[in-house]
Each structure stands twice: as structure tokens, then as C-alpha cells.
């Protein structure tokens, strides 16, 4: 089994290094030429922290065609807003027996990926899987040197077609035993908790962020009122799960499951979670907390909600506020139904994810 | 000519004191019993700053019936969210030859007042006027002692029925020569600039405010991104004016007209305006900047927009955000079409304001 890792940021370097350390053949690609040059010069990737070791990769390149040719598994480890571009580029070269894994897919990643490769001339549709989050909490301290601060105990994964997820989990049993197959991509896509905890505090602290004040994102940035709003947005997301019969994790349950936090409120959970101590707020509004979580989180959520006739006024208003602050049109640019390849019917969505 | 002044806050004490100093008979009412007791004990109102003098009032009471009986002019100087309650209380006692002036009306003040008194048994409909803002910038340094820091050079006033505005201006020519008659209450109601400059920075600094950080509301609280959002909200308001053929003042024009600020952008105007130096942000989200400006500013605006088929996504999203932060339903509680006495047709609105 050999791998392509697309994306050489923190997560991409970490996954490429890890797979390589386990003895697999790994080819890594990134479109950032300077980064690739530095990685080539370095020659190896070193992991430290919760995973220790180092290994060299088979190929490090900007050429996406080269890395996916004759590759079994294609790990996409870019920000979610780059998934569509990756899909467009690799569409003509994909093979039916390959597996693409979006790490993570955010909301609607696999759906968007599938629709995009079909639109861009892919005749041999591979399995497309998406994880619910990134398995490793990690940060590259320098190019080729990654500090792994955490490894999640369980990582949900689902695929299109849905029945392939258990095969993927089986394939990975010695690599990522944390993978847990879920019935379909709604289970991963609708459990995008980043979209619940990033845009609201970022926007309701926009003044502070744009003034470049330094403050702890969770313990200082989240007030009781802000936590209230997050809870209301989370309720809108959970109502989609209820309508679809998909069991979703609330922010509060997730805090318990992922961090062992037993709290009565989102405010208490997020501001008292010791794992969050020292995590600073973004220094600019042009941050992934908005540029990724709004178009690839909130936008597909309200679009799926619309298919179900569920009004999501809180989620809608934060899309609008991000649009007006950043002068963007995320409803158009983001993962709307058109980008997900769904016209206007719930039946279509249920058919595609099946 | 004699006066009732309803409301004994900063503005109410100031107006009552001023009218009394000019030699008019003035009766003042407030529902706050303690405040009224203190004012009674004090016996006089003293003005300092841009207006210097002192005078005693004819009556200071909590009984609204007493102050409006046989009174020519009823000045309502409460927060806008109290207008409806005042209207309900005085409805049965009003006389056709009286003039009610809302100082100021915010958005839809006169409309809401008219509808409310009709609904509460008023058979003798008085003239109902609204000013575009409070004439005096003032603050009570202690009960009965008001510092007047500014007097606006021009103050727009309009009335229902519309043709009475010039008579009101004429009546006041020796008292408030700043009054300028406008064709109808749309000119005053749609020029509620507080609603343009208060909710957006307050909500986009919600984290800071709820954490009780002290910062200058204008120079520190308004960033370029926040000013962008204010501009977009202002454009939505101005589009209502365009559709109705009502010439409105933009935030930028207002900064020039009221303060002589010549700036290229709202950001520049609001952060460089020396009159704003030292104005601190509210210490709590339970502030007039939200509790008055959302229900009596943004809510009637989007409702009038709806009559015209004008979408106001930015304004809508800030109503929603205020709702979720404060756990309110301002669309229902605020000045919606029902509260303004308008069903669903623009023609109705145009008829009522004529």
C-alpha cells in the first residue's frame, strides 16, 4: 500500500512523516514551490512530541499528477477551501481502485469532491472518504519538523459509496486504528464542530481581533452571551441531525467525549477546558476560523437545512456577518447545493450519499 | 403655552429645566418614584455648560394623568422602547388640540404612538410629532443638575398629520428655533442614525463588552472591517429612501453636517471625530445601543424595507445576532408592521403618514 499526501502544511507534513516512519512509500505534494523546495533540501520529516521518529519521503513535489499516479491512497490534508481546486486538478488522473481521504472533510467535503471530479472529466470514480477531524493535533515548528501535541482516540470516517467505509477502516487497522466507520458522510459532515466553535467567537470579537489585541481565544474570547449564541447555532445543526435520523454530537457531548469535561454549559466547558489554555485568538479576520469554517462549514449546513425546510436564522446571520466584514459572498463561493452536486431535493442528497 | 415633560432622565430634566427657565409652565412626570421624590426634594432644575440657569417646575409627579391634563404640549423624553407604554397610559386622556412630541422618535415613533393610542381608546387624536434626535447633548451630573455639552444647530421634526409640522415649528420659533419641518415622518424616522452607529460596533465587540473591558467606543471599537459593515447597513437604509423618494442623510454626510468632518470613509470619520473622544463603550450588552436601537431602529427599518420588497440582509443579520445574544425576539417585541399599525401594503403606510 502506498500513499500520496496532498498538502504539506502542519497536518500534511505530520501524516506524511508518520506514514513514512511506518515503512510505507509516501509521495508528498504542495502547490507552494518554496515550501516544497525547503522540504526537498531538508530531505526528511522529523516528528516529536506524542510521536517520535523521522523518515524520508519517496517524492516531494509540486506536481500533483506525479504523486497520484499508481498510488493506492490519496490523503488530502489541505484546508477545506482548497479541496475543490485539488479535485479539479486530479480529476483526469484518478483511478477507480484508488481511495481519496479528505483529512478532514469539514461539511460536505466528499460530496463537493465527488461532484467536482465528475464535472472535470473523471471517468473512473474512486472511493471518496472524509474524516470528521484531523487525527493529529500538530504544528510544524520548522519545515520538516513537526510537534505532535495530541492524537485523538477515535476518528470517525465515512465514504461515498457509503459501504466502503468499513473496508477503509480495515485497510487502516494497523496505521490508524482510531478510524471508526460511520454509516454515511452525513455523520462526519454534520459533526463538523469547528464550524460551531470558530465563527461565532471570532465575529463577536471582531473589533479586538482587527485591532490585533492578543487574547486567549477560549477563556477570554468566549463570554456567557457568546456561548449562548454558540448553543443556539449548535441547536440548529442538531435539528438537521434529528430530521435526518443521524445521531450527532453536541458541543457539550463532544467536550465530554474528547476531553472528559463534564460541564453544565458550553460556557463552562469551553472556558475551563485546560487543553485550550494558551490558544490565542487569530490575529486577523482573514483567518481559517472564518475563511474555512464559514464557506465549508456554515454554508453547506444551511443548504442542507434548506433541503429539509429547517430555518437556521442564527447560522444564516453569521454567514451574512462574515460576508459583510470580509466583503465576500460565501453563499455563492462556499459549498452551496450546486457545489455539492445536489439540485433541490432531499432525495437526491440521500441517493448520492448512499 | 404650557408643557408636560414625560420622562425625567438626562434629556427630560434638561428640557423641563430649559422650558421652565424660559418662563413656561412645566409639569414633569416619570414612573420612577425614587427619582421623582429626589427631584421634588431638590425643588429646582439647574442647567450648566452651554445653557446656564435654574428654574422650578410647576409639578413633579409619577402621575401621568395629572401632567397631561389641560396641557398644550406633551414632550415625551423617554427611551424609544418606552414610547408604547406612555402611549397606552395617556391614550384615554388625550385631547384633539394637544401636541405630542417624541424627543426623538427613533424609527417609527409617531406611527407606533398613533396606532397605540387608537388601540387604547383615544377618541381625540392629537397631533403627534417626532424629532430626528435629541436637541441637547446633556447629562445629569446629579438629580436636578444637568450639564449641557452641546445643542444641535438644526433639528428635523415631522408630524402626523404631516401638514401640522410647520405649525409646530412656528409655535416653537422662540423656544427651539432649531426645529425644521420635514414633509412627513419618513424623513425623521428613516434618518435614525443612532441605529446605524450603535448596534454593529456593539455586537462585533460583544466579547470585550461582556468581559467589561473599558475601551473608547468610536476610536477603539470601530475597525475598518466594522466600518465596512456599518457602511453596508447604511446603504440598505439609504436604498429605502431612494425607493420612497425621501432624501436621507448618509453616515458620512451626517458627520459632515453635524460635526464638520470631511472624510473619505466612515472609518476615518468616526475614529477621527474629536467630539467622540472619551466616549466609552457600554459596560454591558443590556445597553440602549442594543435594547433601544434594535427594536426601535433596525426592526422598523427592515419592516418598512419589506413593504418595498427591499432585502436588507446585513440589517437582518444584526437583529438576529442581538436576538441570540440577548435571548430576545426583537422582531416580535420591536416596532414591526403590526406595532406601526400597517398591515402589508405600502399604500397603507403612505396614507397614514400623509
TrEMBL record, chains A, B:
Domain Glycerol-3-phosphate dehydrogenase NAD-dependent N-terminal: 4-119
A Pfam family assignment: Octopine_DH
Assigned keywords, A-Z: Oxidoreductase
Database matches in InterPro entries: 6-PGluconate_DH-like_C_sf, 6PGD_dom2, G3P_DH_NAD-dep_N, NAD(P)-bd_dom_sf, Opine/Lysopine_DH, Opine_DH
Keyword Transferase attached: no
Domain called Opine dehydrogenase: residue spans: 182-325
Keyword Oxidoreductase in record: yes
Protein name, UniProt field: NAD/NADP octopine/nopaline dehydrogenase family protein
Organism field: Cytobacillus mangrovibacter
Amino acid at each position: 500500500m502506498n500513499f500520496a499526501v496532498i498538502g504539506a502544511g502542519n497536518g500534511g507534513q505530520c501524516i506524511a512523516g508518520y506514514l513514512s516512519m511506518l515503512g510505507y512509500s509516501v509521495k508528498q505534494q504542495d502547490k507552494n514551490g518554496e515550501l516544497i523546495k525547503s522540504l526537498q533540501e531538508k530531505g526528511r520529516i522529523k516528528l516529536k512530541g506524542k510521536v517520535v521518529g523521522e523518515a524520508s519521503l519517496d517524492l516531494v513535489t509540486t506536481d500533483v499528477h506525479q504523486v497520484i499516479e499508481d498510488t493506492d491512497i490519496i490523503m488530502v490534508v489541505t484546508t477545506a477551501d482548497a479541496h475543490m481546486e485539488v479535485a479539479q486538478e486530479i480529476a483526469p488522473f484518478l483511478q477507480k481502485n484508488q481511495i481519496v481521504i479528505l483529512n478532514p472533510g469539514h461539511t460536505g467535503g466528499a460530496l463537493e469532491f465527488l461532484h467536482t471530479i465528475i464535472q472535470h472529466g473523471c471517468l473512473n470514480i474512486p472511493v471518496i472518504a472524509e474524516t470528521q477531524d484531523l487525527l493529529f493535533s500538530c504544528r510544524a515548528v520548522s519545515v520538516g519538523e513537526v510537534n505532535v501535541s495530541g492524537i485523538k482516540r477515535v476518528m470517525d470516517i465515512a465514504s461515498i459509496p457509503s459501504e466502503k467505509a468499513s473496508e477503509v477502516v480495515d485497510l487502516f487497522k494497523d496505521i490508524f486504528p482510531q478510524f471508526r466507520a460511520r454509516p454515511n458522510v452525513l455523520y462526519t459532515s454534520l459533526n463538523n464542530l469547528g464550524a460551531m466553535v470558530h465563527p461565532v467567537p471570532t465575529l463577536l470579537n471582531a473589533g479586538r481581533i482587527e485591532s490585533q489585541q492578543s487574547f486567549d481565544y477560549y477563556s477570554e474570547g468566549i463570554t456567557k452571551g457568546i456561548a449562548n449564541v454558540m448553543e443556539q447555532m449548535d441547536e440548529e445543526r442538531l435539528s438537521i441531525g434529528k430530521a435526518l435520523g443521524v445521531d450527532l454530537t453536541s458541543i457539550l457531548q463532544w467536550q465530554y467525549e474528547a476531553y472528559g469535561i463534564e460541564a453544565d454549559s458550553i460556557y463552562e466547558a469551553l472556558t475551563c477546558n485546560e487543553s485550550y489554555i494558551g490558544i490565542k485568538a487569530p490575529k486577523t479576520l482573514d483567518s481559517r476560523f472564518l475563511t474555512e469554517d464559514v464557506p465549508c462549514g456554515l454554508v453547506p449546513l444551511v443548504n442542507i437545512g434548506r433541503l429539509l425546510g429547517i430555518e437556521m436564522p442564527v447560522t444564516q446571520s453569521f454567514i451574512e456577518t462574515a460576508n459583510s466584514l470580509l466583503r465576500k459572498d460565501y453563499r455563492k463561493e462556499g459549498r452551496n447545493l450546486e457545489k455539492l452536486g445536489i439540485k433541490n431535493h432531499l432525495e437526491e442528497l440521500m441517493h448520492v450519499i448512499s
